Amino acid sequence: MSEIIEPLSQAVLPGLQRLQKLCFTETWSEKVWLSQLSSSRTRIWGPGDPMLGYALFSTVLDEAELLQIAIDPAAQGQGLGAELLCWAMQALAAEGIVRLMLEVRASNDTAIRLYQRLGFELDGVRKNYYAAGDGREDALLMSVVISP
Ligand SMILES: CC(C)(COP(=O)(O)OP(=O)(O)OC[C@H]1O[C@@H](n2cnc3c(N)ncnc32)[C@H](O)[C@@H]1OP(=O)(O)O)[C@@H](O)C(=O)NCCC(=O)NCCS
Fold first, then answer.
1. What is the pTM of this model?
2. Residue pair 139/125 in contact by the 8 Å Cβ criterion
3. What amino acid positions are annotated as catalytic residues?
4. What are the beta bridge partners of residue 69?
5. Number of structural domains, the chain?
6. What CATH number is associated with residue 71?
7. Distance from the CA of 146 to the center of ligand 1, in angstroms?
8. Residue 52's domain spans which residues?
């Protein structure tokens, strides 16, 4: 799959909200979305037309954190998540980011496989970090060194 990946803006907020609702159990209010999208530290890219996915990052100096990546369930499993994350890592490296970090639910096999394939390594585990049904689940902390 090869889509045109571009910076996304507030203009596509309804599409971002739709995808977040499809892909995550917890969604953000419009206020949180607008605060993310207006921050100079936020980077968000995706195939915007049609809106098939997004990857959202927060940057601080030469480090970045992947806050969310989501691909429309109808387009999952066709390589788009890998293409988007790979593209974003190159864009972050081009602006001087050298380390990319993330947290992921220990049960999210698809995402973990994607991150490992792109070079992320396990840094540690936050025990019982996420709510999961009636219980809790661990967060895996992963990172990768990136370069242009
Ligand atoms: C995680 C996510 C972004 C991956 O996007 P995607 O476009 O489906 O991923 P790709 O097609 O690029 O595949 C990436 C890897 O996951 C594997 N994969 C894809 N769909 C899978 C599925 N349903 N079950 C198991 N593995 C799967 C692929 O085989 C590939 O691994 P491989 O390279 O070893 O074959 C997407 O599944 C998603 O939006 N999930 C819901 C939101 C989420 O959990 N985001 C991550 C936490 S923020």
1. 0.93
2. yes
3. 103, 115
4. 55
5. 1
6. 3.40.630.30
7. 21
8. 5-145
